[in-house]
Amino acid sequence: MKHCDHEFWYEALHMVFILFYCFTIYFTMLFYNRINYSVYVFVCTSHTANKMALVDKTTQSITTAKDMREATQTIMKPYANWEEYLAPAPLSIAILGELVYISSQTDFSINKNPPKDGYNHIRYPESFRACLMQVCNSGWWAFKEAHKSMDKIRLHTLTVPDYVANAVKILFQGNDEMLRDDLPDQLENIKRVAKECVECASCAEQKFEDVIKLTQELLQACTNSKRGYDQELKEITAALEDAKIKQQQLQDAKNMYEKALKRVETELDDAKVKYEKSMDSLPSGWGILAMDAVGGITENVTSLVNGVISLIARPIELACNASRKVKDARHYRADEDEADEFDKIEICSKSSDILAGINVIGAFIQQSSINWKELYDQEEEKAKTYFAEGQFKRVQNELKNLPNCKQKQHAEGICEAGISICEKLQKHAPKGECSPEETSKILGEWEKLNKLALAFDSESKNTTNSPSMTQTPPMMNNINNAEGSGKKSAGQRATEIAYFRIEQTRAQMEKARQSQEKCVEKMENNEKELAEVLSCMRKCNIEEIDFNTTIKILIKGMDAMGRVQAQWQKMIHFFEMVSHIVNLKSTSLLDFQTTTSKAQQQSYNTKLLKKDLIYKQAFQASNIANLVNMISETYTCMSDKHLMDRVSLLGTLMAMDSSKPEFRTEIDKLRLGCDEAQKSILQEVRKNKEAFDKSTAARLDRIERELLPILPAAAPEEIRVIKEAVQEGFTEDQMSALM
């Protein structure tokens, strides 16, 4: 019996040991698998974080200050051509030469029916020949002044980069005392350069305006004294009416520019307020994602400034089209386009704010699901997308006072759709779930909203001519590097945006290339037109030159001088823009006292924002100065080669005795010289186009070569949506259809 008991307990103990051994193996394997899974998740997360950190680093390397200046030049090149300043010059000089030639013929008085108050510009109304010589002399002085002023502008703009470098150094290295005491001096230096350049450009512009007014008065005097020439009088009347329209266009453009410049100042003032409000509404613990969310504020300023620069650089007629529509608004229905060009730029500049809100929503949507756990803010007891909802409502409020147009409708539609999605997420966030049908509906609305936002951002880049890939402000960049890009959530969203920016850049480069091609084509057509005009003038024998021929030449001369004057007005507005950008009187940016708000709890605070805004101001001023320096340097070089010798020859002709045989020889020499100048300028334009095509291709190639290989793979469907959104944004009709 005892023996049996012994065997029983032995067997039982053996079974317990076996069970213990099995359980040990089971739990060991389970623990091991969990460790492996944790290691796997950790490795995958670290790999993604490292990938995104590398993407951020590469993006920074291709968006340096130098890169952004070159990108801005590339995008702006079709609008800010130095050729526009030179193209009318040979025609103008040639016409002045023809007037000298004509003035050697039969003379007559134009003082038969003088104005009651006398002439304002004509000095010798008793002699038509003397009046023609006065026009020639005035034109000669205008071109001399233009060359001198452009050379001064070239020298002045060379100093701006040094002032900007000093300002940036103080921003990076200086304490608060240095910022308050030394920084204003550097910005004032930039402003002083702008003021001196405005004076130079104004002086040249005034000279050409004097020629135009003198010619107008001469033509008017001709209509009063030559009553027998009905056809010629009709031509004069039409030319004078056209001149009045162009002068009104110039005035409309000036008014629009002044409005734009004041709005830039206001936007800089508002940036600090917007930032603090955004910071106060941020969900707790967002850290570096907060800077991504409010980074759109500084981009607003950049887009607005770029838009104004492009507006200044556009042809006067295009810039004024919308202004004329507004004046005739009584003929328009309320839902039609009532906005001028700057209103559209201001509306489109808000795309960065809108996209920031979209990115917040995108942080909680992964492909076909919603991350309810991360979405709900336990501390605030609501969905974290309340920040995005606040962004959309703020943009909506800012749009209320702007005139109606397609761009406004696009922006408002996106904001309304964004608010709707945020409200639905807020409704279901406390429970952390919703029905499959409701989830599918929200995801469908999100896909449409995301595509609309990407398309509107592309439309914004197209309207404001802002580079797709922008430079991160230095203070924000320092915080990014210090906290580590790997901490960013929504890596999938960051990947999508990176692909989007590459596709936008591709579309921008193609648009710039096509625009430049059209500019060259237009100039070639103008050259043909010029050749026909000069050929027609020169076919007339000296005996055949009559009042009719003279009037036609005067009208052509007035038109050519008007084109030159318009270019110099652009130059004035460029430097007025620089002055307004760095204007410190209307901003509080130099007050570096911190405020007591939730914003101060963030690593990126109001003080750093102000530094970044000042950097943006200085950088944009430097961008414009660099653009104008490119124009002025090329103009001065080309003027030395092809214009000033002809201008000097014109002066020689005015001093010669027209009865001498040498006079005709010099006339022929001037004609040949003007023809050669026009051909040489056209050759330079073609050569410049080839270089431009290479630069656009090189920019895109560098971005694709350095950024594409390191981006995580994106789904084909995402790439398709991105490409469609970009194309829709760069094609207005498609964008309207999408809404």
Explain this structure:
Residues 226-281, 502-529 form a coiled coil. With 739 residues, the chain is an all-alpha fold. The chain is built from 25 helices and 4 strands. It has helices spanning 2-61, 65-76, 83-86, 88-102, 128-158, 160-173, 176-181, 183-225, 230-280, 288-313, 316-327, 341-348, 351-362, 372-375, 386-399, 406-428, 436-464, 474-483, 491-539, 547-581, 606-642, 644-655, 661-707, 716-729, 732-738, and strands at 365-366, 369-370, 376-377, 382-383. A two-stranded antiparallel ribbon has the order 1-2. The chain has a two-stranded antiparallel ribbon with strand order 3-4. A hairpin with a 4-residue loop joins strand 3 and strand 4. Helix 9 packs antiparallel against helix 10 and helix 10 (288-313) runs antiparallel to helix 20.
What count of domains describes the coordinates? 1
> Uncertain segments of ≥5 residues (pLDDT<50)?
30-46, 322-335, 485-490, 584-588, 595-600, 734-738
Q: Determine the structural class based on helices, strands and strand pairing.
A: mainly alpha
Number of helices: 25
Distance between the termini: 94 Å
The overall pLDDT average reads: 76
Number of strands: 4
Main sheet: strand order = 1-2
How is the biggest beta sheet arranged? Answer: 2 strands, antiparallel
Give the strand content. Answer: under 5%
In N-to-C order, the SSE pattern is HHHHHHHHHHHHHEEHEEHHHHHHHHHHH
Helix percentage range:
over 70%
Instruction: Specify Rg, calculated over alpha carbons.
Output: 34 Å
So what's the overall shape? elongated
